[in-house]
Amino acid sequence: MTVLHDTTLQPGTPGPSAPLRPWVLDDRGHVDLERTGTPDHFAVLGLPRRLGLDTDHLDVTFRSLVRGLHPDRFAVHGPAAVARAQWHTSLVNDAYRTLRNFDRRVAYVLELAGDLREERYQPPAELLVHVFELNEAIDAMQDARDEGDAEAAAQAERDVREATATIRESRAEVTARLVAAAADWDAAQAASEQAGAELPALAQARTALRAGLGHARYLDNLLTRLDFSATQ
Amino acid sequence: MAYSDKVLDHYNNPRNVGSLPKSDPTVGTGVVGAPECGDVMKLQIKVNAAGVIEDARFKTFGCGSAIASSSLATEWVKGKTVEEAANLRNTDIVQELNLPPIKIHCSVLAEDAIRAALADYKAKQKA
Question: Do A217 and B32 touch (CB under 8 A)?
Fold first, then answer.
């Protein structure tokens, strides 16, 4: 069993290197997935574990890593090296896809803490009533269209459009709350790293992130339904 | 994924669809939603002087399993006392409708809706 470090994997790669933890190889020289486990997305991209992230820098890092891992560069080192590079590329792709999007990044941080599905998020009662009425308005719009009642359909369309605008406003508010919670989480994470132990503020920030994310998903699902009914 | 026959039956012939007057003091209204899928469910109960649920109505915007779960829930609570209705569990719905693991949250939603309607009714009685 051989343990390799990432420096051996990227001959002459320009740009940042990914400080991956050592992986375990099988006797053919391929990465033993089971014994290696899945490394953390932040580590794969050589980033600190923070939600505040410069996406331009992330794009540059990603492209540079993928270029450096191109299979052609490893052909001379044999098929096992090519397979390792491909495995490494898939890790980089997964990490990039997850961290590039803010909501997914938040979900990933919660997942790392084992916090994502711990409790069910219950949207606030006023929002639910609002959502319910909106769904009724969409139904009324479709019924009016089916019956060919142009006047009623136009009125229902206006109601739906108005409600959609309100929901988009709520989504923007939720995003702002999530961004603030993300900054709190980053501060708590930095303080916890320094203290060498998880501080209570970190769990508090996770609770706020979880609530914001649940709320955001709910609104996104609703907006998808609204966009869909608008095209019908 | 194929729906079970019982889900299809409730989906095609939903029982007790509609609304009861929300401001009626003997009517309890529960509106709940599932963030996983954006479903929203309204369940209402009408309780008589003996504390028995004499009528129940629902309206659900969601998938077939959510509609079937709430339709079944209204059937089950009718004729039960408020106390008996509180004992209804989502696992009973899962079993009756043969829901797959990915649709279990629909049955949880129906249980939540009953609880919310009961809580609303009780709050009205106290007021």
Answer: no
The pTM assigned to this predicted structure is 0.69
Q: What is the pLDDT of residue B76?
A: 95
**Contact state of B40 with A221 under an 8 Å Cβ cutoff:** no
Does A29 reside within a domain?
A: yes
Query: Hey, of B19, B29, B31, B90, which one would you mutate to test binding to chain A, going by the most A CBs within 10 A of its CB?
Result: B31
Q: CA A127 to CA A133: how far, in whole Å?
A: 10
A24, with CB counted inside 10 A (0-12, 13-18, 19+), is middle
**DSSP assignment letter at A31:** B
Q: Do B35 and A128 touch (CB under 8 A)?
A: no
**What CATH code is carried by the domain that includes residue A37?**
1.10.287.110
Per-residue model confidence as pLDDT tens digits over B4-28: 888 999 988 899 999 999 999 999 9
| A115: closest CA of chain B, how far (Å) | 15
Interface pTM, i.e. ipTM: 0.79
Is B5-126 a domain of CATH 3.90.1010.10? yes
B51-69 average pLDDT score: 93
Looking at the domain assignment, is residue A156 inside a domain? Answer: yes
Residue whose C-alpha is closest to residue A104's, from A213, A185, A192: A213
